[in-house]
């Protein structure tokens, strides 16, 4: 995953005392990152502002169990890339933040517990891409080499539902893999169509461990990323991903990973990503590439 050790520094801001530094550093070592844990905004601010590293080399994992004001988040964002870990509350396990929440405006938003963030193979593979600012993120890159795939496009002679059925039959999918294929084709055809979102293509793919259904779409101005994330959460996919490629282009994915630790009724994950860099960030990435 990493080209060399400690390319970046990951700082976890959390109120939890259950996650130790050894566990976090074991996780980030595979990403080529160092790691630190902070339990207060003031300590994190002091550390991040005294850091001489470029902004793209600093990553903050903000566990929402530590409340930050919009101003505090903006202050940290001047010095680091912020990935939000929004842990579900016991009394509101399925609700997501309001559309206006500053949490949606960060580079990455993970709706899951902190333990799931560290244990999920899907999130680990996503982090391997996200930690590299020089590269664009793609949901399809989460699959291993040699994955079986087929595409449905608007110009295809068969319907989207027929394409999904053929994919299920071709791989003899059963259980959760079959369910998410059927649910995602319905979600794409009905829900996105009702929103007026133009679906350009749907990729059906599986590498034997990870099954991924990925829709490439044109995003309308009046559709919030938070709404799409809420819709994915309602459909109860193991992992739902919304990846903003540009102001108009998005990927929407439903994934299932054949993890032997998984059980029915386990926590579901929602992820939104936005690596559409500003001009300032692009300059910083260019300097990073020149520095090697």
Describe this structure in words.
With 292 residues, the chain is of the alpha/beta class. It is 33% helix and 25% strand. The protein has nine helices and eleven strands. An eleven-stranded mixed beta sheet has the order 2-1-3-4-5-11-9-10-8-7-6, with helices on both faces. Helix 6 (160-171) packs antiparallel against helix 7 (175-194). The longest helix has 20 residues, at 175-194. Mean pLDDT is 86; it is low at 277-292.
- The rough form would be described as globular
How many whole angstroms does the radius of gyration measure? 19 Å
Strand order of the largest sheet: 2-1-3-4-5-11-9-10-8-7-6
Q: Please provide the ordered H/E string of secondary-structure elements.
A: EHEHEHEEHHEHHEEHEEEH
List the helices and strands and how they pair.
Blueprint lengths: L7 E6 L7 H9 L3 E6 L2 H9 L8 E6 L6 H8 L3 E6 L21 E4 L2 H6 L1 H10 L17 E6 L6 H12 L3 H20 L3 E9 L3 E9 L6 H10 L4 E6 L4 E9 L11 E6 L4 H13 L1
Parallel strand pairs: 1-2, 1-3, 3-4, 4-5, 9-11
Antiparallel strand pairs: 5-11, 6-7, 7-8, 8-10, 9-10
Helix pairs in contact: 6-7
């Amino acid at each position: 995953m990493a080209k060399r050790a400690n390319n970046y520094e990951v700082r976890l801001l959390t109120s939890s005392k259950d996650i130790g530094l050894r566990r976090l550093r074991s996780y980030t070592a595979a990403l080529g990152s160092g790691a630190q844990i902070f339990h207060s905004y003031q300590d994190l601010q002091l550390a991040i502002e005294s850091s001489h590293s470029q902004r793209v080399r600093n990553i903050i994992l903000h566990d929402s169990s530590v409340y930050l004001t919009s101003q505090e988040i903006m202050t940290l964002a001047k010095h680091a890339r912020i990935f939000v870990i929004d842990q579900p509350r016991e009394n509101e396990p399925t609700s997501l933040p309001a559309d206006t929440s500053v949490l949606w405006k960060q580079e990455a938003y993970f709706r899951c517990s902190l333990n799931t963030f560290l244990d999920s193979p899907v999130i680990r593979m996503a982090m391997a891409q996200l930690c590299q600012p020089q590269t664009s993120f793609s949901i399809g890159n989460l699959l291993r080499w040699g994955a079986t795939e087929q595409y449905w496009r608007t110009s295809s002679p068969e319907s989207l539902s027929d394409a999904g059925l053929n994919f299920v039959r071709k791989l003899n999918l059963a259980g959760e893999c079959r369910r998410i294929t059927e649910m995602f084709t319905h979600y794409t055809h009905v829900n996105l169509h009702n929103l007026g979102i133009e679906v350009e293509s749907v990729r059906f793919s599986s590498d034997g461990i990870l099954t991924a259904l990925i829709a490439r779409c044109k995003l309308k101005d009046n559709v919030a990323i938070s709404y799409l994330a809420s819709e994915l959460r309602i459909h109860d996919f193991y992992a739902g991903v919304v990846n903003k490629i540009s102001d108009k282009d998005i990927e929407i994915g439903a994934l299932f990973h054949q993890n032997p630790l998984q059980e029915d009724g386990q926590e579901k994950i929602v992820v939104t990503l936005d690596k559409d860099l500003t001009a300032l960030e692009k300059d910083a990435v260019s300097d990073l590439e020149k520095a090697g």
